Design the sequence.
């Protein structure tokens, strides 16, 4: 059975996801592409066609640009859509895809605010009813080393978990300077990673991976988050997000996990997750368990193979009819990241209950090129 | 010349002990004469606590950088109708010193037995070294330094104090607080099993500040507004949060081996707040892979938390008096004011001829806070050993009122 794939969001990650998808299994064909901008779509199409892979078969009439490009693509003849735009658009894209009966691969994070997370959870439920597969780009859940480490930990290899720590300490990402005559909306979308309503801030956009591993390993979301953060290195004109966060996530029984993330150039980098139990430490990022049940992952899985594996799992589930549905899990992890962000922005402790009911909604009133003043950088103690 | 029994007992002690004995005993009465260096709020409070904690105390000298601070403190401490009753104070103008060298003139007084060091911490290493050199017992407020160079000076002075049989007691008063002492005893006896992790925090609103006046030089304004300049305060992680970090070192009976941190200045950004950060979070790694989370914040309108928590394989403890788990326990009973207890313990140890020396502990707690601060300022994962050898020295070229541009706010990744 041939699977026709449409790509929504033709940036670096979208292009990568399309390549991962078509190479993950035979007879998977990229047939349609959509992006906000013609130049981004052309660039991506050129790269993918340059692969000379039989899985790339995109015709001009199946290429769409603009704010409604996603809808035109979804309404066309595709089986599976890859949703890879900036995360601020994800909820509306997931809803449209599920409502049109498409299987979905969606990049992480799946929303930037609590309202968006609930929209994705609801769409995920409709997908389940329709037996559609929804897989998320939290690829560690498809990475054998992580799967095996978390499985052992959940089975008690480190005894009872008493504490943990996760980190995504890395360099600054890219930024796009504004061009003369560019509207607020256009510049913000081109520079999306630095804008709150599009990326959700880096704790949501990037650290979501480590947070997802934490939520997975801990068996569910924390009950409370106490965070802080700020801008120690970002230039004043570079977007309205932070460059570092620290969050103390708390689970019942007084189990605390420290979450650190920062995007600081020329500093020590570290990405990892560690769970300290009564009998040892589990470290999924190094595939290691210490203590009396010491163990080390010896398999061949790598981060690279996990990017392909998530698509292989997705395609296999579509073909077998045994729908996989990761919508809720990735939405919960996204909301945990948002919970930490909101605690840092406000300076208040935020409970899971509060964030689950929160009406915070970052989406703009209108999706059109034009004026859109950016929200000021949040100052703790002064943000409601 | 008559001789009191007490003098006789003192004189009967071994020659070596007599040689090392404090001036009070040699002089012929057992009054401990106290000099206060640093006449701000904490110094004034420390003097009162010291004078009230034990009988036979007398405040005989004051020193401060600023004449009006000294006068305010002198008026306060000599006020006969002050709350709690008159204090044993005997001060005259010849025993009151101001200026940058006031401390040196105070420690040079033969009649002073004990000095209380309560200036901004940037001055502490110099003052401590001078006091020990002059053969005085010392009560030193926390923190005891702001940089590794200062820490090394303090450790040397502490070693010298040991040789001279002089007391060095630190203002990390939790170590003298009964509910902490009782909990720590149980923790060290294994009530939590093995310690797995710990957390500590000092999260509160902003503190006071002093706006600049045009008649003040850079240095004078910075000394008056000292909380906000790292060469004076060490930043708030060192100046304030050191208390909680001290409890971590105490509970774990170790100092951190490594630190990774974030921090910044997000809410308290105006120039009147100098160049320090308003929040830090440090992941301290202790021996055996035990990690301690440290958070501190001075931002108005945010949720607060000041405290410590120790997590073990068998349960958790709040070192301020409770243990959960199979060895559950709650501190009950009286926990006297630790700010007084620390002075009572110090004076008792001096009178017993076994002076307490807390230099190592408070130097290590201060150093841990400095390590956390530098990890945040630099964005580097810093080791204890490297930091102990660091040449970082925040002290100004000279101690005099004059020009001293405010150092820029630290930007991680951009530090030499």
Sequence:
């Amino acid at each position: 059975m041939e699977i026709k794939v449409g790509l929504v969001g033709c940036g670096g990650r979208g292009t990568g996801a399309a390549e991962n998808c078509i190479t993950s299994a035979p007879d998977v064909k990229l047939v349609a592409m959509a992006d906000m901008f013609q130049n981004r779509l052309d660039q991506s199409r050129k790269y993918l066609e340059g692969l000379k892979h039989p899985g790339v078969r995109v015709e001009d009439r199946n290429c769409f640009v603009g704010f409604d490009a996603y809808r035109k693509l979804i309404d066309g003849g595709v089986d599976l859509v890859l949703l890879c735009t900036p995360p601020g658009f994800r909820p509306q894209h997931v809803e449209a895809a599920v409502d049109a009966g498409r299987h979905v691969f969606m990049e992480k994070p799946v929303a930037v605010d609590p309202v968006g997370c609930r929209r994705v959870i609801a769409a995920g439920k409709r997908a389940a009813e329709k037996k559609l597969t929804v897989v998320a780009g939290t690829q560690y859940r498809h990475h054998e080393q992580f799967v095996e480490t978390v499985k052992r930990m959940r089975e008690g290899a480190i005894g009872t978990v008493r504490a943990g720590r996760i980190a995504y300490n890395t360099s600054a990402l890219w930024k796009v300077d504004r061009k003369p005559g560019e509207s607020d909306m256009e510049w913000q979308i081109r520079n999306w990673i630095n804008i709150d309503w599009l990326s959700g801030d880096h704790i949501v956009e990037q650290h979501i991976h480590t947070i997802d591993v934490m939520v997975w390993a801990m068996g569910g979301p924390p009950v409370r988050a106490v965070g802080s953060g700020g801008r120690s290195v970002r230039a004043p004109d570079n977007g309205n997000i932070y460059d570092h966060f620290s969050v103390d996530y708390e689970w019942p029984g007084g189990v605390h996990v420290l979450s650190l993330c920062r995007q600081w150039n020329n500093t020590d980098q570290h990405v990892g997750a560690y769970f300290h139990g009564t009998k040892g430490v589990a470290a999924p990022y190094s595939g290691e368990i210490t203590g009396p049940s010491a163990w080390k992952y010896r398999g061949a899985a790598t981060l690279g193979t996990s990017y392909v594996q998530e698509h292989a799992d997705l395609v296999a589930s579509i073909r077998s009819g045994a729908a996989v549905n990761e919508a809720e899990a990735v939405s919960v992890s996204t909301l945990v990241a948002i919970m930490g962000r909101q605690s840092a922005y406000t300076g208040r402790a935020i409970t899971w209950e509060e964030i689950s009911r929160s009406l915070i909604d970052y989406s703009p009133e209108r999706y059109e090129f034009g004026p859109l003043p950016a929200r000021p950088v949040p100052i703790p103690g002064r943000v409601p | 010349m008559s001789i009191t029994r007490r003098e006789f007992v003192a004189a009967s002690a071994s020659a070596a002990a007599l040689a090392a004995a404090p001036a009070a005993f040699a002089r012929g009465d057992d009054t401990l004469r106290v000099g206060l260096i640093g006449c701000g709020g904490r110094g004034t409070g420390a003097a009162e606590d010291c004078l009230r904690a034990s009988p036979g105390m007398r405040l005989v000298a004051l020193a401060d950088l600023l004449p009006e601070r000294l006068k305010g403190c002198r008026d306060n401490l000599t006020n006969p109708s002050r709350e709690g009753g008159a204090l044993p104070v005997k001060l005259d103008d010849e025993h009151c010193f101001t200026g940058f060298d006031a401390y040196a003139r105070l420690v040079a007084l033969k009649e002073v037995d004990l000095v209380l060091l309560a200036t901004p911490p940037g001055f502490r290493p110099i003052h401590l070294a001078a006091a020990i050199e002059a053969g005085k017992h010392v009560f030193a407020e926390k923190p005891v330094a702001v940089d590794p160079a200062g820490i090394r000076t303090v450790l040397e002075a502490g070693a010298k104090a040991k040789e001279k049989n002089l007391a060095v007691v630190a203002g990390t008063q939790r170590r003298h607080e009964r509910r902490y002492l009782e909990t720590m005893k149980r923790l060290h006896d294994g009530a939590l099993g093995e310690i797995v992790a710990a957390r500590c925090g000092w999260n509160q609103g902003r503190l006071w500040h002093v706006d600049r006046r045009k008649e003040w030089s850079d240095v004078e304004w910075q000394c008056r507004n000292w909380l906000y300049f790292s060469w004076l305060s060490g930043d708030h992680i060192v100046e304030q949060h050191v208390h909680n970090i001290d409890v971590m070192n105490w509970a774990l009976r170790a100092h951190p081996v490594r630190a990774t941190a974030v921090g910044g200045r997000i809410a308290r950004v105006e120039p009147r707040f100098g160049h320090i950060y308003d929040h830090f979070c440090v992941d301290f790694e202790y021996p055996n892979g035990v990690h301690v989370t440290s958070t501190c914040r001075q931002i108005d309108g945010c949720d607060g938390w000041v405290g410590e928590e120790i997590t073990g394989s068998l349960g958790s403890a709040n070192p301020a008096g409770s243990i959960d788990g199979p060895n559950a326990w709650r501190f009950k009973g009286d926990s006297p004011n630790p700010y007084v207890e620390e002075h009572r313990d110090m004076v008792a140890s001096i009178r017993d001829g076994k002076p307490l020396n807390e230099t190592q502990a408070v130097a290590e707690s201060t150093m841990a806070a400095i390590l956390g601060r530098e990890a945040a300022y630099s964005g580097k994962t810093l080791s204890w050993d490297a930091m102990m050898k660091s040449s970082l020295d925040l002290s100004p070229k000279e101690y005099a009122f004059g020009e001293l541009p405010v150092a820029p706010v630290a930007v991680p990744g951009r530090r030499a």
